[in-house]
Amino acid sequence: MTRTSVSALFAAAVIAGAGTAHASPIAPDEGPPRPVVPGVHLVDQNQKQAALENMLNELNLGWANGGAAGTAIGAAIGLGVGCLSMFPGSLAGCMIGLPTGAVTGALIGIANGNPKAQKAIEDYVNTP
Fold first, then answer.
1. Which residues touch 79 (CB under 8 Å, ≥6 apart)?
2. Between vectors from CA 60 to CA 58 and to CA 65, what angle results, nearest 5°?
3. Residue 82 CB coordination number (10 Å)
4. What does the alpha-carbon distance between residue 37 and residue 1 come to, in Å, rounded to a whole number?
5. Distance between CA atoms of 124 and 58, rounded to whole angstroms?
6. How many Å apart are CA 38 and CA 22, to the nearest integer?
7. Most CB atoms within 10 A, among 4, 33, 56, 128?
């Protein structure tokens, strides 16, 4: 396999893997109460699952409305800037610039495609 095909397969696996997250509910408590452990808190699975689904839906809308285009544009800009800015070692600059530009472009594209995506992420992180 060439490096390009391995990179494409890896990128596809990362993108596909993000859509498979699921929070399963906790089994009902039976028996004596559990001891309190410092730093550990019980999670309300229904609220957390609802927040997860909302976040994934908002990110999906942002991706559909501008994330892919932002990724492509960011990757092209990152590749160009990385290759040109480190001219003697341009291969190293290209390898650093391409993924950096792609991730930055994806984040900007999703945020511009759906302004509610950032709020959904914050809600998910802050849901107990």
1. 94, 97, 98, 101
2. 95
3. 21
4. 50
5. 11
6. 26
7. 56
Angle at 52 between CA 47 and CA 56, to 5 degrees: 150
Other beta carbons within 10 angstroms of residue 127's beta carbon come to 16
Q: Over the stretch 96-119, which tens digit does the pLDDT of each residue have?
A: 888 888 999 999 999 999 999 999
pTM: 0.59
How buried is residue 69: exposed, middle or buried, by Cβ count under 10 Å (0-12/13-18/19+)? middle
Question: 3-class SS at 18?
Answer: helix
User: Could you tell me which residues come within 8 angstroms of residue 117 by beta carbon, excluding any fewer than 6 positions away?
Assistant: 55, 58, 59, 61, 62, 110, 111
